[in-house]
């Protein structure tokens, strides 16, 4: 009965006896591996063909399976050929027990996965090449942004208008912040981004370009072990950049000393990003509280992340919280707008 099942199978199957001799095989096996049925029957499987099946580990596993000491499950091996590249095979062998010790049989099934493995390798190679090219593009973009920032700064030094100089300086700071983001992405691999290291390096870059005395004005980062996708990290980094720049511009007038803290924590899909300072606090007059470009940027980025922005008085200073929650509506105090 086993012989009949093997002979009629549509996949490569081989029936062996206890001495690992071929009793029969499916037509698919003979055709797939160019084996002559007349010369294969009665010979050990290691001797069929031109000896390509005589692989030491395969021989050992088959013998152990015949003795009942092992069972071949998804064993992969390369079947060498006199013509062409080796074929990658996945083998399974099972001992057939009919209660007769004198008659032992093994059923060997074979799957040719050569094309599947080549496709996987090609996909991996393409992904690796894409990653390298993307990192190269990110690196070039960061360098170009730094060149643009330098041109803007040179222009700011040449103009006579104080207002124009201030606008150009703001533009320079924003371009430098985006360049810092691009550098972080080009230095990291695709996939999950470690936010603690990411925010730390980002704030170090901002501080290096905008804080003269780091003992007088301190920029701290307190982030848990959270990770996120690279695309999300860009939006978070831009939010941090805008909020920190806002603190540096408004929270410490007339050389006032202080501290800015960037914090991030998450629990499951919910997360909170906070930027807090101990500066002069929120403005009370409507003119000073008028929303600026930074406010628009932060709120737009928060909307992209389905997050909620809230500004509160820290007594002293301010706290800006950007919160993502699965709860559709966040209850609490009415939100106030930033003046950036």
Q: How would you portray this structure in words?
A:
- This protein is an alpha+beta fold and 340 residues long.
- Helices cover 43% and strands 23% of the residues.
- The protein contains nine helices and twelve strands.
- It has helices spanning 2-7, 27-32, 37-40, 56-66, 114-158, 162-187, 195-210, 230-250, 293-304, and strands at residues 13-17, 22-25, 72-79, 87-96, 105-112, 192-194, 217-223, 227-229, 258-267, 270-277, 308-313, 318-324.
- The protein has a five-stranded antiparallel β-sheet with strand order 2-1-5-4-3, sandwiched between helices. It has a five-stranded mixed β-sheet with strand order 7-9-10-12-11, with helices on one face. Strands 6-8 form a two-stranded antiparallel sheet.
- Helix 6 packs antiparallel against helix 7 and helix 8 (230-250) packs antiparallel against helix 9.
- The longest helix is centred in the middle third of the chain and has 45 residues, at 114-158.
- The termini are far apart.
Short description:
The protein has 340 residues and is α+β, with helices and mostly antiparallel strands. It has nine helices and twelve strands.
Mean pLDDT: 83
Strand order within the widest beta sheet: 2-1-5-4-3
What Rg do the Cα atoms give?
34 Å
Helix content: 40-55%
Terminal Cα separation, in Å? 83 Å
Task: Describe the largest sheet.
Answer: 5 strands, antiparallel
Helical stretch tally? 9
Low-confidence parts lasting 5 or more residues at pLDDT below 50?
A: 328-340
Determine the strand fraction and express it as a percent band: 15-25%
Globally, the shape reads: elongated
Structural class: alpha+beta
Based on DSSP secondary structure assignment, what is the total number of beta strands?
A: 12
H/E series: HEEHHHEEEHHEHEEHEEHEE
């Amino acid at each position: 009965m086993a012989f009949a099942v093997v002979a009629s199978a549509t996949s490569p199957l081989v029936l062996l006896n206890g001495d690992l001799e071929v009793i029969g095989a499916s037509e698919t096996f003979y055709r797939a591996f160019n084996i002559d049925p007349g010369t294969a029957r009665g010979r050990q499987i290691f001797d069929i063909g031109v000896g390509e099946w005589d692989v030491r580990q395969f021989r050992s596993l088959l013998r152990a399976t015949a003795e009942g000491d092992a069972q071949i499950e998804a064993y992969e091996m390369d079947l060498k050929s006199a013509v062409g590249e080796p074929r990658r095979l996945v083998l399974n062998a099972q001992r057939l027990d009919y209660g007769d010790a004198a008659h032992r049989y093994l059923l060997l099934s074979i799957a040719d996965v050569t094309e599947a493995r080549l496709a996987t390798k090609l996909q991996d190679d393409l992904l690796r090449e894409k990653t390298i090219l993307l990192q190269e593009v990110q690196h070039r973009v960061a360098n170009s942004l730094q060149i643009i920032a330098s041109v803007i700064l040179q222009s700011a030094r040449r103009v006579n208008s104080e207002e124009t100089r201030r606008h150009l300086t703001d533009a320079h700071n924003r371009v430098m912040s985006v360049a810092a983001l691009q550098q972080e992405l080009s230095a990291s691999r695709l996939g999950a981004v470690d936010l603690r290291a990411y925010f730390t390096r980002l704030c170090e870059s901002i501080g290096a370009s905008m804080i003269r005395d780091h003992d007088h004005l301190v920029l701290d980062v307190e982030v848990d072990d959270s990770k996120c996708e690279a695309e999300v990290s860009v939006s978070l980094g831009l939010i941090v950049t805008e909020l920190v720049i806002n603190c540096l511009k408004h929270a410490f007038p007339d050389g006032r000393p202080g501290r800015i803290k960037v914090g991030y924590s998450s629990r499951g899909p919910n997360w909170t990003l906070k930027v807090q300072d101990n500066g002069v606090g929120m403005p009370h007059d409507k003119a000073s509280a008028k929303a600026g470009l930074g406010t628009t940027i932060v709120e737009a980025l928060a909307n992209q992340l389905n997050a909620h922005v809230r500004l509160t008085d820290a007594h002293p200073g301010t706290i800006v919280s950007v919160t993502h929650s699965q709860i559709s509506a966040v209850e609490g105090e009415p939100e106030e707008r930033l003046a950036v």
